[in-house]
Every structure is written in C-alpha cells, then in structure tokens.
Write a structure and sequence with these properties.
This protein is an all-beta fold and 129 residues long. Helices cover 0% and strands 48% of the residues.
Length: 129
C-alpha cells in the first residue's frame, strides 16, 4: 500500500516556474514507477511525466518536453516535478501516481492511467497570462 500526498501547487504567471512534490508513505515506493498526470476542467486526465523505479529512465508528454523535469529521491520517498516556462494551458489539477507492479515490465512509455494503482488527491496549478 502506498499513500501519496502532493504539494507545491499555486497561482503563477505565464513564464514562471513551479515545483510540485509528492511524498509517499509505504515500504514499496522505491519499487514503483511514478508518474504525474493532470486534469483540466472538462478534459480527461492526461499523462505528464513518469520515472522508473531506479530513476534511470524518464518519460514526458510532448506538450511539456523541455520545460518539465521529473525526479525522485528513493531515500526520502519523494518524487518531484519541476515546471518551467509555464503556459496557460498547463492549468490543471496535478496528480502523483504509483504504477502497479504488474505493468512494471511493459515496454514503452508508462503513460496510461489504468497502469497506476495509487493516486494522490491532487494539487491545483493555475497559470495566468
């Protein structure tokens, strides 16, 4: 069992930076691929970024590539999302999630929400122009 708590959201202006953090409880955190997803009003939840358990591989949605960076600290049970050059279209509730072990050997980008079995409550990011 993994419990996830996000923090760091807020209201910023376009072009600003923001760092989201996700703190996990549970002894299996270091074995999970971790992901960040977001959901804007009236839209489906979409993949943002993911990082494998070792931190050796990272994945990004095309819309955030080059602007966002995902990282993790397994010693501290945390995963972070550094967001730079924010745009209005980045406005959404951001969720941290832990991938289920049954999907850990799948090839390719771990971008499908159904792969993730543990979710945080979300943190709001609002970018104004």
């Amino acid at each position: 069992q993994v419990q996830l708590v996000e923090s760091g959201g807020g209201l910023v202006q376009a072009g600003d930076s923001l760092r989201l953090s996700c703190e996990a409880s549970g002894r299996t955190f270091s074995r999970h691929t971790m992901g960040w997803f977001r959901q804007a009003p009236g839209k489906e939840r979409e993949f943002v970024a993911a990082i494998r358990s070792s931190g050796g591989s990272t994945y990004y949605a095309d819309s955030v590539k080059g602007r966002f960076t995902i990282s993790r600290d397994n010693a501290k049970n945390t995963v972070a999302l550094q967001m730079n050059s924010l745009k209005r279209e980045d406005t959404a509730v951001y969720y941290c999630a832990a991938q289920g072990f049954r999907f850990s050997d799948y090839d390719g980008t771990p971008s499908r929400p159904y792969e993730y079995v543990y979710w945080g409550q979300g943190t709001q990011v609002t970018v104004s122009s």
